[in-house]
């Protein structure tokens, strides 16, 4: 019960890695806020968790569009009213797109940076302000990617957005530790979620591959021997949210089966 009596907000928490982290936080004693742009997915996730025996008083679902400052402020207000404050933020909401560099559109650029960078930062800022005002410190975990560690020719904007997440984690970590707010990050590798089926279809289009081939190849290339699964990231998310990582500041932890070493 490493997170007993803590309140954790997980953006993009209705599915995939976000929902896996929510389950693990609940198992570690926390109350959990599932914040997602897809309200129906939030409701489905809450129904599933309650069906697993999680008491309703430890759950809250909120609609959150991280690209909308008013939506961020409303989420912080709702959580504060319900639980009294926020102890942990997992900045997990993100979008993905892919085009060759010569075909990247302004709309694609704007969407990825609005959600992956601007949305992440202003969610972090709003929650950090609430943490500082409350005076109890807190933990903020930003989800980056191995794509933030290196460029890829077809994924230039996504890679750039995730590199920005690593940089923001460093800057915000240095700025907020004096207030007792630890900011760190997690950089997943390739993860077997429904989104990767969409990624695979894009690779099939641009690399002229059969559907499923890219996904198979990237899984085989992971030194561990397979793609990641959502549950593979929950241990790191608990570690960075609890007292065990108290002296870790402004770091981004690679959790990728050995794909990247730093």
Question: In the CATH scheme, what's the topology name of the largest domain?
Answer: Rossmann fold
Put simply, the count of helices is: 8
Structural class: alpha/beta
The CATH C-level class name of the largest domain: Alpha Beta
Question: Average pLDDT, to the nearest integer?
Answer: 97
Largest sheet: 7 strands, parallel
Tally of discrete structural domains: 2
Principal-axes geometry comes out as globular
Domain Ketoreductase: 6-182
Organism: Billgrantia endophytica
Protein name: Sorbitol dehydrogenase
InterPro entries: KR_dom, NAD(P)-bd_dom_sf, SDR_fam
Please provide a brief summary of the model.
The chain has about 260 residues and is an alpha/beta fold. The chain is built from 8 helices and 7 strands, in the order βαβαβαβαβαβαααβ.
